[in-house]
Amino acid sequence: MSDLLTPLIRAMRKGMGPAIPSVCSAHPDVIAAGLRQARDHDMPALIEATSNQVNQFGGYTGMTPADFVRFVRGIAKAHGLEDVPLILGGDHLGPQAWRNLSAEAAMAHAEVMIADYVRAGFTKIHLDCSEGCMGEPAQLGDAMAAARAARLAAVAEAAAPNPEALAYIVGTEVPPPGGARHDGEGITPTPAANATATLAAHETAFAAAGVSEAWLRVRGLVVQPGLEFAPATIHRFDRSRPDLLSPVLAENDRLCFEAHSTDYQSPEVYADLTRRNFGILKVGPALTFAWREALYALSHVQIWIDGSPHISERLEALMLEQPQYWQGHYHGDAADQRLMRHFGYADRIRYYWPRAEAEVQALCAALEGPLPMPLLQQYLPPATLSRAARLALPAPRAILQAHVEETLAAYYPEDAC
After folding, report:
1. In angstroms, what is the C-alpha Rg of the chain?
2. What is the pTM of this model?
3. Domain at 288-411: CATH code
4. pLDDT in the model for residue 416
């Protein structure tokens, strides 16, 4: 049995298919939108969780890997999307969540996590051991990172119900996951020599660890193509830059590149990345950013309907009460930080939506009746309203998901799906 990812990568490498967008989110409306877009474009849906988000201790979502699988499948069933082929991915699976511990202690936790992920049904496994643990450099060299990745691959192979269904991704990218933390940070594309060295180090390490079969299941290498987003700026991909990375994969048609932080780029960029052998395009904050845009728009509509306070007031209070999710990401004076808390591209506000679920539900309930179209048009774009009208959902929820779908649709070239 082959994994679902391999045929997509082989088709993309032959110029016969698109890249697959990877929806990295635990937000139910975003996941529903991702499943629906995959169905509408006759593609599998790739939904990913990160090691900080979901692990054996619950992560910041409170979900274990098995919980997350049930969560995603429950959303699919609730929206009549259970027949959409589903690829579940684990992102940055390694010792990062426990890097304040010794390397051995952190790796022991990572081994349990990897086993839990594959037993739960995750098949796309990003082995990322690039960050140092207590007493180590912040970033490890290729040899050490690859040796630890091979160690985790051995655990995955032993724990998987069907190892042949696994597809591994290796390597990492800089800046750290979630986008650059400073607007002035420069973005340097990965040099081809570095990409070649990373692949060679992992192949050597997998052989040394006795998991050469797992090496044959490696499907992607994470590299930095030269794009990123920061709190207030987007680093646009330079399409005029020559493609220096593709030759790295010239001899191996089972591999592709994986790009992280592709949020907020244009459809032309995604098409160009596909031509440059980027077969997996990860997106997350841009989708919850779009959801927040639609929710704030609906809250303005509610103000006109019944005079309720804007929901941003509740979110501002939550973010000030529990600042750990945005502090260190947003800088400047108090006014700058306030704007970024709500409107920053890093979208750190996404961590607070579970705590505001009652307010979101109340807002949606208040707007379920017929709404004046001129009022909706004041705050929401025509494409979102048109798409929402086609969804068999209560109007507020349809608008929220439709606005996310409008963002995600840029990843699907109509002539290639």
Report:
1. 21
2. 0.94
3. 1.10.400.20
4. 55
